[in-house]
Amino acid sequence: MKPCGIFLISAALSLAILVAGCLGSGTAPPLERTAWTLTEIRNDAGNLVPVLAGTGVTAEFSADGRVTGFAGCNRYFAGYSLIGNSISVTDAGSTMMFCGEPEGLMVQESRFLGLLASATAFRIEGTALTLFGEGARPLLVFRPGTG
Description:
Number of helices: 2
Structural class: alpha+beta
CATH topology: Lipocalin
CATH class: Mainly Beta
Mean pLDDT: 86
Helix content: 10-25%
Number of strands: 9
Shape: globular
Distance between the termini: 55 Å
Order of helices and strands: HEEEEEEHEEE
Radius of gyration: 20 Å
CATH architecture: Beta Barrel
Largest sheet: 9 strands, antiparallel
Number of domains: 1
């Protein structure tokens, strides 16, 4: 093989490795064993809106059927079960503190806990976890990472 051919093959392999590294493995994070941070929440008008800045709402789904996290002011816990992409969240509870800031935090927290309990399905696309309610309406959108 001519030196030029070796160079082209080497360059092509290097480019393939570079592209693969930039694209990642393409594998979505698993529901379990991922620390999820809420990024969007369904409002009263039925639209997904960003969560209040700095509230750090989280969810962690364990292999033993528990979901726990921080709702913005209080810690919460619940059971969950899966059948395919269907999810059922049950037996929820939380601590009972009041937080006055940022404004609207307690409304958001209450909405979050209610929407979590009403989730009927989930989907992970790319790095986004979306929980859906009746009629396939998106309720909550999470991304990997801590709040």
